[in-house]
Amino acid sequence: MFESQEYITIKKEELLEKTAPLFKSGHRLVQICCTKLPDKLIMDYSFDKDYKFIDYRIELPLEGASLPSITGIYFAAFTYENEIHDLFGINVIGNALDFGGKFYRINETAPFNKVVKKEVKNA
Amino acid sequence: MSDILKMCKTVVSSLRKKPFCQMYPFKPAKFYDHTRGHIKLDASKCILCSLCAKRCPTGAIEVDRVKGSWQINRYKCIMCIECVVACPVKPVKALAVENQYAPPMAKMEMEMFDVEVKKPAPKPAAAPAASTPAE
Amino acid sequence: MPNRTVIPFGPHHPVLPEPIHLDLVLEDEKVVEAIPNVGFIHRGLELLCEKKPFQDMVLVAERICGICSLVHGIGFVNGVEKIMNIQVPERAEMLRVFWSELSRVHSHLLWLGLAADGIGFESLFMHSWRVRELVLDIFEETTGGRVIFDAIKVGGVKKNINKETLDRILKQLEKVEEEYRQIADVFVNDFTIAHRWSGVGLLTKEQAITLGAVGPTARASGLAMDTRMIKYGGYDKITMEPIVETAGDCYARALVRVREVYQSFDQIRQAISKMPEGGETEAKVTGFPTGEYFSRVEQPRGEVIYYVKGNGTKYLERFRVRTPTFANIPPLVQMLAGCDLADVPAIVLAIDPCISCTER
Ligand code: SF4
Ligand code: SF4
Hints:
The complex is a heterotrimer. Chain A is built from 2 helices and 6 strands. Chain A has helices at residues 15-24, 77-88, and strands at residues 7-9, 28-36, 41-49, 52-60, 66-68, 91-93. The N and C termini of chain A lie far apart (33 Å). Chain B is α+β, with helices and mostly antiparallel strands. One iron/sulfur cluster binds next to helix 2 of chain B.
């Protein structure tokens, strides 16, 4: 048996206003995930309450993308936001606990967002 | 009082029992039928088809059908048994899972088995061992 | 204002088997703020999906964690089966439930032992692990491995268990449960343990929700949240209720785990009794995955998320794991603020940290 899931695409500017009501109604932040597609990045913000899964999706350009931070609403988002900054090179503005690219101690910058994707050396 | 001595029952009762651990080097280790120790090749059965090398997810096996050698890198092998499943020799497969673990090795090197080349390979181009997806 | 001191905790510390670093800002003996620092062992496993076909990714997923390896595998195959529309045979589903509950037993026993060790209760630690060995024996008998089980594959399971073995396992479980009862009694009733953990590391229910706590950490704060309730895999045929404690301290977290072991024993028996006789253990897998799915399963440590996205080739486009410890780091930071320095190890242990999974 599988739960049904729906992915709602929203605009980057709407993120905070969509997230705040969820916080008020007692939803929990499940995860934030970034996916690299050949032509864009997609961000998934997932929330859950009473086992009901809500997913907001934002599309971002491959390079020089930036996002508003939701740590003002969900403080727990700081781990995810530091992660996507370190792995995908997305600039998250206003992170409440910003590690400044030192969350993961890795040599390369944004290893998951390489333009030549297939030649990842230390996979 | 009894609240802080709850553990005593277990501790005292284990005083009367034999040690739970086995005296390992003096007594043989306990194995089950499924225990995955190491992969063993029966060199007389192998037909050097290199299906095992193709299937292996870590690229631990290398088969050279010209020279007639079958090698395994025990450090890479993760004992997933895919190679044993893939081996086509019937009725008894050329590869088997042994319960006993592989003997310790001081250096990371391939373990080599010499396999007699029985007949010229039907299509030599079909399976060079280096084409495993993982490296 | 008192002097503030910063004390580094970790990355190497006696209670931590894995590296996590905490910068503890102290005012006298009280921790004012804790700044977590992970990332010492980032492995980049998520990128491996570009190099390994999706069937082989199960092996990678199982190796993300050494304790709940099997449930990681189930999380991954669950997602792939959903996007490929594979109907897993019932026997395979029940075997998966059987093994994942057995994993929960052994993982919780491991944690109970480690937690007892963390407060200096050595004999309890050893006896917990002695019972755990009996569980590992069942694993070795049925799957062939003691740590990495390799029993799961896309479309079903790799190993089948015959009737006689199942009967023997049921008998063995009786024995394990009886041994466990003695140990659980110590955890529930012993004065020293209650004294050491009560009121330490408080997390209220509201904080648990807003900080996204998962698993026993959330349930100990009164949040009835157990991902098994979404009835993935074979759990639609298993009856269960999430185990909830309301105190929200370290002792409640231990009690949740103690009680969950009994629940797992019950679920193992249910799974065995509902297992159909004979029948297939794997479905045929044809084609390549297309589509995307967030697969959520309940691990011993909490909810794990597998995001799989296939694009019709044999390589997945994206493979993402969000492990329970990753979600439990913000609650950990909250719990540490305001506690005593001497309580820090107990609190860090109480979320059952698994740092290697956190960083994948
Ligand atoms: S057991 Fe698995 S990893 Fe080891 S050689 Fe066989 S296929 Fe390769
Ligand atoms: S699959 Fe079997 S027969 Fe073929 S090369 Fe490997 S061991 Fe030999």
